[in-house]
Amino acid sequence: MNAGSGVPVPYIATWSSEKRHHESLVVHPVTGRLAYRDERPGDRDEHGVLWVRADCRPKRGRPQFGLVHPRRQRHAMRDLRCQVCDGPADVDGLGSLWLLRDERGVRADWPAWPEGMAATDPPLCLPCARVSVRLCPHLRGRYVAVRVRDAQVAGVYGGLYFPKSGGGRPRVAADVTVPYDDPNIHRILAAQQVMELRGCTFIDLPD
Ligand SMILES: [Zn+2]
């Protein structure tokens, strides 16, 4: 899909016709657990974590490049699909292909970066990786290509909710990355899947 300016619209991008629905969110007054008043099958993942409700109407309206669609991002992560074209991510003997903002030398506290990184940007196929490093503003000149041997579903990124005193709609305190074994996980409205990257090898992106 093309936005008309030569820039491909990533598979995981949200379109303006895809609204999010928070209207029926509630926080259980005793357990603090976040829920929908009218909860439906599919609102939670297999860890019991609540996910944001979003319409699925890709390619209708305008693309919103900065806003990731929760279902498509989750699908791309879990099935190792390319975040741009939804084809299979490129895989070779060293693992699947990921592009990361280069933080080598920046993280003095993390010499093994990106080993163990919690990633929210899904992997890519080779042709889309080549286009992305040319066109994506947040990657241009600052990316590193990495092969990942072991990418595991590890948690979610989303809003951390608290009950509103005196009742009413719960309020979001912050957007955070939370592993599935964190006690706060049931206060989160998940918007993106988080994968832990292990067995990472830096590579030069092949021409
Ligand atoms: Zn692709």
Fold topology:
Elements: E1 13-15, E2 20-21, E3 25-27, E4 34-36, E5 50-51, E6 53-54, E7 63-68, H1 70-78, E8 91-92, E9 95-101, E10 117-119, H2 126-135, E11 143-162, E12 171-179, E13 188-203
Parallel strand pairs: 5-13
Antiparallel strand pairs: 1-7, 2-6, 3-4, 8-9, 9-11, 10-13, 11-12, 11-13
Q: What radius of gyration results from the CA coordinates? A: 18 Å
> DSSP strand (E) fraction?
35-45%
The bound ligands are:
zinc ion
Note the overall shape.
globular
In terms of quaternary structure, the protein is single chain
Which regions contain 5 or more consecutive residues with pLDDT less than 50?
none
N- and C-termini, Cα separation:
23 Å
Report the helical percentage.
under 10%
Describe the structure.
With 207 residues, the chain is mainly β. It has one domain. It is 9% helix and 38% strand. Strands 5, 8, 9, 10, 11, 12 and 13 form a seven-stranded mixed beta sheet that branches. Strands 1-7 form a two-stranded antiparallel sheet. A two-stranded antiparallel sheet has the order 2-6. The two termini are 23 Å apart. The mean pLDDT is 92. The chain binds zinc ion (ZN). Zinc ion is lined by residues 82, 84-85, 87, 124-125, 128.
